[in-house]
Amino acid sequence: MKRSIKIPLAISLTLALLLAGTACSSDVASEAPKISVQAVKTGDLLIGQYADGRVVIPAAEIQSPIAGRIAEVLVQPGQSVAAGEILARLDPAELKSELAAAELIVKKAEESLAEARLQRTYTITSEEVKLVSLEREIYDSRYKAIEDYNQQILKIEYLKNSDLAVTNAKIALEQAEEVYDDNPTSVNELAIDKARTALDEAIQTRDYNIALEEQRLIPLQRTYLEAQADMANDPAIYTEYSQNYDMQKLKVDYLRQSDAAVATAQFALEDAKARLTEAQAALAQAEIEAPVAGIVKSVVIEPGDLVAAATASSTSSLLTISQMDAVQVTAYITETDIAGVEVGQTMRITVDALNLENQAGQVSEISLTPKIDSTGIVTYLVTGTFTDPDARILDGMTTFVTFIKKEKPAVLLVSNKAVYIKDAQQYVTVQKEDGTLEERSVTCGLTNGTVSEVLEGLAAGEKVVTGGIVR
Q: Which residues of 294-315 are buried (b: 16+ CB within 10 A; e: fewer)?
């Protein structure tokens, strides 16, 4: 029973396989030859040099203009930024402290300059008084009383006008009050009390010295009046005074022309002002700005990081910005073709990954340094710039670049694969709408090696055979 069942099954399978083989042979025999066709299009005919290229997006490496600690980072990778936009901020506390110190130094330098000028005036005037006394030696010791009196008057006026100690004490009090305003602690409050005490003591000392010198003036004034009375009664003139007078005259002239102390104080003030300007500039640079527009490529800092000031030799960066408005393409051109490429030449760029064709560009640089590979082929690096780069283009994408020598816009184009020569005439095979084929003579114009300009014989939209038939 079992055997009689297996035999019919085997026979059935064999018959099925034979029938299938017969059907397949019949299909193959009846299958028509396949052809490839391409539509005739209107487009721009580009003639020039061709090369494979690669997208290069320039990147701006951002460094900190000053040293400090990062307080906040305001951008992240992938974010678009405009030129001048704030990327990060440094902690301004230390910068403000340095600015306050610089302002204090300027105040002290200004007071020192004023003191130096006052001291110079006092010294010159004092020596001029001595000169006058020598000129009037005719009055002998009687004039000494007048000189002493005048010197004491000058001294009192100097003390009244000179209040450097008081001014410094006032500045110290102002600084202590500013520190307390920023940080109102008991220690800073005690510093204010000490500064006020120091100021009161400076004022008391100044007033005491003035009062003391005014007391000394009283007897001198009395002697001065007596001497004037004696001089009025004895107008005799002495003649032996010229040598001492000439020496004193030289000294006065020297003092009038020499202002070394004032110049030194002036220089110190200018230096202090320069440091103040630097401190102000440093505080203004606490905000790190984008020098160019673009997309943030990377951020390697975070709040709390200490950063150094940028230098001519420093290479580390805090952030990197891809300059999307300056997208470039690079391509290597052989030594036989480089003569046909020049700076300023128009380019057309195809980015296959994004299906972007005929993107406009312009040659911006041609390297004069050759690249020679292991086989001896010599090429030169050519850099071009996209005129209006697509925002989707990424760094490193491959491209096909045409360096245009000649361009004919909006012409009818046919694939060179479709054109053939017969009896010295150009022909194409046209596939009609019903699927039948027609051989047709055409007249072509310029070609770039891939497509040709159609002058006669075809219309836009017609399909021509590019392969699959034997002519």
A: bbbbbbebeeeeebeebeeeee
**Top-level CATH class of 59-91+286-322?**
mainly beta
Rounded-to-10 torsion of CA 196, 199, 203, 205: 110
CA distance 32 to 28: 9
Which residues touch 438 (CB under 8 Å, ≥6 apart)?
A: 429, 430, 431, 432
**Mean local confidence (pLDDT), 342-355:** 94
* 324 closest CA partner among 52, 53, 60, 54: 60
Structural domain spans, the chain: 45-56+327-467, 59-91+286-322, 93-283
> What confidence tier does 325 reach under pLDDT thresholds 50, 70, 90?
confident
Query: Degrees (nearest 5) of the Cα angle 402, 406, 407?
Result: 85
How far apart are the C-alpha atoms of 242 and 203, rounded to whole Å? Answer: 45
Joined together, the tokens standing for residue 1 give: 């029973």
The sign of the CA dihedral 151, 156, 161, 162 is positive
> How would you write 392-416 as a 3-class SS string?
CCCCCCEEEEEEEEEEEEEEEEEEH
Bridge partners of 48? 404
Please give the distance of CA 361 from its chain centroid, rounded to a whole number: 26
